[in-house]
Design brief:
With 339 residues, the chain is an alpha/beta fold. The chain has 15 helices and ten strands. Strands 1, 2, 3, 4, 5, 6, 7, 8, 9 and 10 form a ten-stranded mixed sheet that branches. It is globular.
Length: 339
């Protein structure tokens, strides 16, 4: 990671980090009454990891040392699917999990992944902080999960390619694109005429370098943190999907905490989610210039042909059936008429 990038992160989170240092100094030295682990797949110095550590420090301090939450980023506790299994079994107390992975339990968890649905963040937060997000959280209780009220931002996903610049919709046809392990991602890129396949993100750099894939899609910060700009020359700003991370815990583990600690954890992680959104936006707005300096070339394809392809190919109709009319109506109330 370049010194410039590290300075950018630290500058954006400076106030929070200073507060975190104060929290740590104030934390009592006695053993905690409750000890939790929090897992995530973000790299260690990703802005979201910085904010998660701050949240853990706040919990430790404001609980008077009663609850100690240790943060483990960068898949230290396993991949997303492994950590989800651990949470459900009670072996891992908390996790920040992408919505696409949660959809392996409850399909409606991926409703924010509907392609080309959100045009901007106002629409995203109206949906996810409102009735649609509440419905998703309620559905997850059926699978033994407790979910914090505020979802963490992972950004709009963009398309990168190694040897072919994508300037418009037709340039996507036939491309071998790496996507996460999630049915809606596969469905989306097939509807665009590409050839999608799944791979672990920790294996993706080598796969792109050896031309196993023509390209991949991720939020812009990932291009820096995983150094994809070294093996991907082009980035098309498609904003084809928005992704978020829910903070979850297992119901049985959560029930071990007294009500006052439950309320405190909910409050702190919800507050830090709001700060994380702001800091990630600040970081993302500056990283494009850094990537250009590294040699990456950006384009801005017209989104309309992509949206038309999803309508014409039945993508929206298919996923409306999967998510159900109620959830779909809540989505459309924050976006536009999709079907």
């Amino acid at each position: 990671m370049s010194h410039l990038t590290r300075r950018t992160i630290l500058k954006g989170a400076a106030a929070g980090l200073a507060a975190a240092g104060a929290f740590s100094l104030a934390t009592p030295s006695r053993a905690a009454e409750f000890s939790f682990k929090l897992g995530a797949d973000w790299p260690s110095d990703h802005p979201s990891s910085v904010q998660a550590r701050i949240a853990c420090d706040r919990v430790r301090t404001e609980s008077g040392g009663r609850l100690d939450i240790q943060f483990f980023p960068n898949n230290q506790l396993g991949g997303d699917t492994d950590m989800l299994s651990q949470v459900r079994q009670g072996a891992l107390e908390m996790m920040l999990i992408p919505t696409g992975v949660l959809s392996t339990l409850s399909p409606v968890a991926a409703i924010n992944n509907v392609g080309m649905a959100f045009d901007n963040y106002d629409q995203v937060w109206n949906a996810m902080d409102g009735a649609l997000g509440a419905m998703v959280r309620n559905e997850l209780t059926k699978f033994g999960l407790v979910t914090m009220d505020r979802i963490w931002d992972n950004g709009f996903r963009q398309l990168t390619t190694g040897s072919k610049q994508v300037n418009d919709f037709k340039d996507v046809q036939g491309l071998k694109i790496r996507v996460p392990v999630s049915p809606i991602f596969i469905s989306l890129w097939k509807a665009f005429g590409a050839s999608p396949a799944s791979a672990n993100i920790n294996e993706l750099y080598t796969a792109l370098q050896t031309k196993v894939f023509d390209g991949q899609e991720n939020a812009i910060p990932h291009l820096q943190f995983y150094r994809f700009y070294e093996v991907q020359k082009y980035c098309a700003l498609t904003s084809h999907m928005w992704e978020g991370f829910w903070m979850i815990s297992g119901r049985k583990v959560w029930a071990r905490l007294p009500a006052d600690l439950q309320d405190m954890v909910q409050r702190i992680f919800n507050e830090e989610a709001m700060t994380q959104r702001r800091l990630l936006a600040q970081f993302s707005s500056g990283i494009k210039e850094k990537l250009i300096s590294e040699g990456m070339i950006f384009s801005s394809p017209d989104r309309a042909p992509f949206q038309e392809a999803l309508t014409r190919g039945g993508f929206y109709a298919e996923w409306r059936k999967i998510f159900g009319d109620e959830a779909w109506s809540l989505l459309e109330s924050s976006t536009r008429k999709l079907v």
